[in-house]
Amino acid sequence: MDKQKWESRLIDYIDGKAGEAERVAIEQELLHNESVRNLYNQLAEIMGAMNHAHVLEPSGKLKVNFEQALQQEIAAQQKTKTVFFSPVVYRVAAGFILLMAGLAIGYKINQNQIKTQELEALRQQVEENRQMMLAMMDNPLSASQRITGVSVAYTFDKPDDEIVNALVKAMNEDANTNVRLAALDALGRFSSEANVRSELIGSLAVQKDAVVQIALIQLLVKMKEKSVLNQLEQLTRDAGTLKAVKDEAHAGILKLS
Q1: Lower CB density within 10 Å: C or N end of the chain?
Q2: Residue 134 belongs to some domain of the structure
Q3: Termini Cα distance of the chain
């Protein structure tokens, strides 16, 4: 994949500048090309984090100066109706148009340079946050560090597969209940993503921590996930299920039915 070429195409697509044919072609690639899809997610996240662009506009004095010059040239010509067809006036007007065109081109180039610099800085910040999150979540000695690592997930608009997998592992396997709850809460932010939704549904069958079970049931009910009704029924019939979890499962069945 030509990354630089795809970055340019995807930036136009995200900005809504791509033509209809180009938009369709890009959407097909997003459906079938994982590399392009990952690059799109990164660019969308970075551009979404940009608060504003630095706007540089030509000075308003240019128009005033042009009008003054034009009037002086007109005054120097015969006061007839043909004055506006004078070659001198044409040269002044053409000069002004060329000046404005040059400024517009310079402005566009400068904006692109600023956007590229900001994208690169934000891309680097996102990657640093990502690496910090993964490192902190991998700390076996400190639950507080792992919770802090999980909280970094809140800085992402759309996490990649590695981050999702790390959060799912923490939710299902971490020895500390608070870490599990933090991971569950982080994943709940991304529950509109199909892969995250699938992991949350699957987690209900493996969770044994009552506190996490209750929080997970509440989240799945909030998501209106009716596919878990059978699992909730099983929880209510399981002799090993705590009463508080059974009560929550009963409530969930009533809300989803």
Answers
A1: C
A2: no
A3: 47
Domain that holds residue 82: 61-128
pLDDT for residue 197: 93
Contact 92, 70 (CB under 8 A): yes
**Claim to verify: residue 167 and residue 123 sit in the same structural domain:** no
**Within a domain: 135:** no
3-state secondary structure 163-206: HHHHHHHHHHHCCCHHHHHHHHHHHHHCCCCHHHHHHHHHHCCC
Angle, helices 61-76 vs 87-137, to 10°: value is: 170
The CB density around residue 65, as the number of other CB atoms within 10 Å, is: 12
Residue 57's pLDDT is 43
- Rounded Cα distance between 150 and 164, Å, is 11
Q: Are residues 121 and 149 in the same domain?
A: no
pLDDT tens figures, 42-101: 666 665 554 333 443 444 544 455 455 555 545 555 454 444 444 444 455 555 555 555
What is the C-alpha separation between 141 and 55, in angstroms, rounded? 49
* 221 domain residue, yes or no: yes
Domain boundary among 128, 160, 175: 128
In a domain, 150, yes or no: yes
